[in-house]
Amino acid sequence: MAHPLEVRVISKRFELPNSAALQTYLATEGYEALRKALQMTPERIIEEVKASALRGRGGAGFPAGMKWSFVPRQSPKPRYIVGNADEGEPGTCKDRLLMEYDPHQLIEGMLIAGLAVDAHKGYIYIRGEYRYLMDILDGAIAEAYEAGFLGQNILGSGFDFDLYTHTGAGSYECGEESALLESLEGKRGYPRIRPPFPAVAGLYQCPTVLSNVETFSAVPAIIRHGGEWYHKLGTPKNGGTRLFALSGHIRRPGVYELPLGIPLRTLIYEVGGGIPADKRVKAVIPGGSSTPLLTEQHLDTPMDFDSLAKLGTFLGSGGVVVMDEDTCMVKVALRIAQFYAHESCGWCIPCREGTAWVHKLLARFHAGSGVESDIELAGELAENILGRTFCPLGDAAAMPIISIVKHFRQEFEDHLGGKACPFEARERQLLPA
Ligand SMILES: Cc1cc2nc3c(=O)[nH]c(=O)nc-3n(C[C@H](O)[C@H](O)[C@H](O)COP(=O)(O)O)c2cc1C
Ligand code: SF4
User: Ligand 1 centroid vs 212 CA: distance in angstroms?
Assistant: First the structure.
């Protein structure tokens, strides 16, 4: 059930019976935006997306309309549309809902992007673990072909567009746009040097609009109701709504569609119902595991790209993880470090070696074998990864560790002297004998 504070634009069909079916989509304004876009010039479509202030939902928050405008439409090369459905960022689980419950919305958004940049082929790159979604998406694509929304001469307009699904094999790095393109081309998922960016040299070195599933899913509503309408749902520089995946120590975890700029406190206490047993918030991951953490003092921060950037962190993928006062932050750092050490693709030394060292150090530290200088060393190792790697995974690995060491130094000190983790010791005391 929707929370009263939710503004359901892209999730409005989630609870309809048979929501993924074409029939349901058509009964709820489905493909109306495509019909409208077919009457518009590419420039007009791009202007509308620009007016919406839609910013990429994959992590970096780059303005979508601007990205589309960078694609050289007169290029003799073919152009491509790629949907990033890799959704590998820990704490994030919203694209799967968009694909499971409303696949036609994504298809329509990608079609409109195709019209805007004169592309005639699109791919949806799905993470390996989401293989079950392939059936749903392939079914929806087949329905769209059957009904004349995909294929040759769409709705008699002369516009052709083919769409395919493709799975990855479970690599976090393959969510990074250039590694994704390599993987989609059938190669090992190593990132590419940038520039050039995908808008100019993307799939098969051709101009490509590569965006997150949520970004494309917002496009039909923008075209249907106008960019200004969508823009006004959010803040001046952060148009619209976004799906927040709320998890961790929270009474009502879930994926909620809320206006950008909603205060973190409202998200946790009103939408999420607060912390179980009325405990205090110790830390919050605001936008997936690669974003520096917030603490209780930041609860009044508006959840939008710019307000979080002012605090040195990011809205990222919208995965908000809440941690209560009993959480061991050394263990949190260890768990994050373990993930990045495992997911480093190994291409460049600072990331390959640095993430492994941070992980080893924190594992030893959390087990009670740390010494005081390790606290400094953990931060230094992370600082030496930051800004020195081939792709942004290195920064993603370093930033949360730096922020945990900075905000929670005392907890590291509490692990010194050969003591076991103080939080685990407390947990053991609370367990029945
Ligand atoms: C290591 C790494 C993993 C990423 N994983 C994803 C992902 O799973 N999904 C996604 O949409 N973007 C991911 N991104 C961001 C993409 O590189 C890219 O910026 C994004 O897909 C662009 O779409 P947008 O403009 O709609 O945000 C990742 C970036 C990095 C550095
Ligand atoms: S930072 Fe380097 S090693 Fe790490 S994932 Fe990127 S290219 Fe691979």
Answer: 7
